[in-house]
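pasting Isoprenyl transferase for the record, 225 residues
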Amino acid sequence: MNTLKHLAIIMDGNGRWAKERSLMRINGHEKGAEVVDDIAMYCAKNGIQTLSLYAFSTENWKRPKNEVDFLMKLLKKFIIKQREKLIKNDIKFDTIGDISVFDSDLLNEILNLKELTKEGASLNLVLALNYGGRDEIVRACKKLVLANDEINEENISKTIDSASYGDVDLLIRTGGEIRLSNFMLWEASYAELEFTDTFWPDFNSKELDIMVKKFEKKHRRFGGL
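structre below
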């Protein structure tokens, strides 16, 4: 039986979920934010150490300004709303990606929640914000150059944003697309991959549990036999 320590999810399909229901895209994003609760609680109760969620990519800035503005407001609302629940459930909140570009109010809320939950031991809830896998690797290499350290696999693994959480064991993408979209390229090099047609707002812990049980039974060879 494999032990699932690090689960990563590309939360895709909010806009299409809304379109199917003749709703605005922002309604899909609102519904999608609610799903995070269910998935995070499942992970905390089932011994999964880290849950990494692709929340906002470096490419998402290309979306219409009104949608980007809404996503920033939704993120701030989510962080404030989750504060007491994360503390109560002993969940550590963290981010990967370059969050320095966010406005001061949002950035302060992010940093404050990190500080308040830094001792959380039941789950690491990691949001990928202004994140791109290629950008992450480039930034790690630049840090190594500045530190005059050798650029090799071991040092990059120690320097990337998610260094504290290790490689991804299982990566899931909802919404029917079959691609990684620049998400955790380094960490997911040997991850098991699962793709589902379910849009993120309809995804739930029952569907996740089926994937987790499937993962536990897989024979992972990592290039061996």
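The CA atoms of residues 43 and 137 lie 27 Å apart.
The two ends are 16 Å apart (CA to CA).
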